[in-house]
Specification:
It is elongated, with a radius of gyration of 16 Å. The longest helix is centred in the middle third of the chain and has 29 residues. It is built from 3 helices and no strands. With 85 residues, it is mainly alpha-helical. The chain is 58% helix and 0% strand. The protein starts with 15 loop residues before the first helix and ends in a 12-residue tail after the last helix.
Length: 85
């Protein structure tokens, strides 16, 4: 979860429920990305796949899929940060 939150003053004029929903969505997105980063660290450290699976951390595909769904829900272009290079 975030350690700090900065909200621009213009955002405070929005519907409070919409603002709260946006903050919650961004927190969930950050948590998914942090879980993915932890999964990668555990894999790099040599932890076996069964142990990582028990940790219930998201995979790259799960995070990408969730972000694309969110982008479609919020009427933005699908531009997931997870891309093959």
């Amino acid at each position: 979860m975030p350690l700090a939150l900065k909200v621009e003053s213009a955002e405070l004029h929005r519907d409070p429920q919409q603002l709260a929903n946006e903050i919650l969505r961004l927190c969930q997105k950050a948590a998914n990305r942090a879980g993915l980063a932890l999964r990668k660290q555990l894999e790099e450290a040599g932890l076996d796949a069964a142990s990582i699976a028990r940790a219930n951390l998201p995979t790259e595909a799960e995070v990408a899929r969730q972000e694309i769904v969110e982008e479609q829900d919020y009427d933005t272009e699908p531009q997931s940060w997870l891309r093959t290079v």
